[in-house]
Amino acid sequence: MADLPSRAEHEGRDPLQTPLQFLKGVGPRKAADLRKAGLHMLQDLLYRFPLRYEDRSRLQPIISVRPGQTVAISGEVLQCHLQHTRRSNFRLFTALVQDASGQVQVVWPNQAFLKDVIRPHQHVVLYGRAELWGTRGLQLTDPEFEVVDTAPAAPEAPAPLHTGRIVPVYERIGTVSGNVQRRLVWQALQMLPDDMFDPVPEELLRRHQWPGRTDALRATHFPQPSATVDDLNAFATPAQRRLVFEEFFVFQSGLALRRHRNLQIRKAKPVVVSEATRTAARAVLPFPLTTGQREALREIVADQQRPWPMQRLLQGDVGAGKTIVALLAAVVAIEDGGQVALMAPTEILAEQHMRSITRMLDGTRYRVALLSGRVGAAARRTLLPAIARGEVDLVIGTHALVQEQVTFRALTLVVIDEQHRFGVMQRGELAAKGLHPDVLMMTATPIPRTLALTACGDMEVSVITGLPPGRQPIRTLVTPDARRDEVYRLLRDALTEGRQAYVVYPLVEESEKVDLRAATAMYEELAQVCAPFRAALLHGRMKGDEKDAVMRAFSSGEVPLLVSTSVVEVGVDVPNATLMVVEHAERFGLSQLHQLRGRVGRGVHPSTCVLVYQSPWSPDAQQRLSAMASTQDGFVLAERDLQIRGPGDFFGTRQSGLPQLRAGDLLRDADLLELAHTEARVRIETGHLVPAIEQYVLQVWDRQFGLIAVG
Length: 711
Prior knowledge:
Distance between the termini: 34 Å
Shape: globular
CATH class of the domain at 275-464: Alpha Beta
Structural class: alpha/beta
Mean pLDDT: 85
Strand content: 15-25%
Helix content: 25-40%
CATH superfamily of the domain at 275-464: P-loop containing nucleotide triphosphate hydrolases
Oligomer: single chain
């Protein structure tokens, strides 16, 4: 502790930055436990909100207490003592408590220290569960308690903290119990001035009738009697909503500042769109664009023509036609003398892009190359210098694109597919290979608006709605494993009609820990069931050449049945495939199931997706599969997925850019997030954010939200 600043050194500074060492009762052991939980300063403690609230304010007469009730009572300790039991090292501290209506036994198991805390003739308030216990009859077992002074309290003395009021309940931190935290929070609140700096603009506080920062913290931790437990537990009181807004506003202000600063950056030169550019783009089009595709392309090309770098997210449901929109943007960049890099998260997806884009650019002068981990050393020795000299117009690859030895002559457009699978740093490293290039990020995982405002809040967003002409609706069936014969009949019927089918499993090999049918084990069975039709096996552990051979055979129709793990989730486009069977569908997430279903229905023939589940299945699994059967709209499913899984698990990675929220909940508080987004952008774009608030945002944004520093 010797290296920590003294109290005097903190005078005149932000009181919330006072180290917790200054709180009475924080010794070395508790300080260490608090640090492990990330609690170092008063702000960390005060912004760690209660798990829930309990109303311990309604005191019951002892005579009215019944077994099974959780009650609050108040009375005098008539007698108390430490009682030994037959078990060694196990003792009971018991007390007899009386009020005007009667008496009750109170028992604290194995808490011998209470003999020095609770004494006869003291007045106590108790909160706990009443139960019948052997010969002792009705008793309270291990209740929360507080010794209270019946004499008039000094004005500065706190009201009871643990009982006799609406009480905040905190999660235990090592040796720091909920009661200890309650005392520490009370102390910390007394150290805050009424006029403490507030990052929420005064005008907003007045408009929404919210309390100031200090009052909000006090009312959230130690609510007034007028508050209701239901409102408090829903985090719906004015004080709580104001603290939620504060968190969202600081985060959105940071994003808005970053966006504003990006607008001050100038790229090497804005793209110029000529009539020759338009002619070249039309020549590439294999089919007319949908209204949604045209609108997204218009927004993207408008960004390319601006002097500052584009930062845009292109969202589109499975099969919405994002790739052709991105390719047309690439043509615009190339026609203006630039190079384009397209980065995909997997080799299979990169290779799929290479095949489809090469096909669409057939007959043009554009030079396209693939750069992934499977490109050998000899090929790289030729390819890398060609990219550096500008002889390759479009480079498609995986994370291999961000390697140091990869350089470009004039990288003006970066396209990142399935952007949430890449870390923030990887995306930045690729963009850094050009002189402030335009960046277009794509995702086939529809992102609910609340998540888009957080993970992508500093970007512009284009959404392709609707599907290209000719796409067929997909019938979705939810089937128990016991009806496997019907599933096999559907498989044989599809193959007999000349169509192709997928069967997807969650594992590659039999596992002793998880009772799942594995692709490698079931492949043999399916090959027999579907004979004489050929079957092939595809999984992530196969060598690259083997995967290529399997995918080529399936894409060409040579192999009609593909047994696979979820590596086919993205990047496989076989229009003749009309049946998708997902085994152990209860083990897959909703987004993953939607992606798998999107592998069929890509041609002119009616398609079916069969979700086979094994009992017992969890309530969450039932909700997921029911949602799949009810809609094909990926944006509807994304909202449902968010409700089922919660924001933290939606992307499945902390690298996605979601902030660590302490007060806000993206589902519960979506209205406050929208408000914070609007208010932050308007204030920063018009120069009306108070300088002190802007400085505060710049100071705390990275530390609080754990992301790349603003600017």
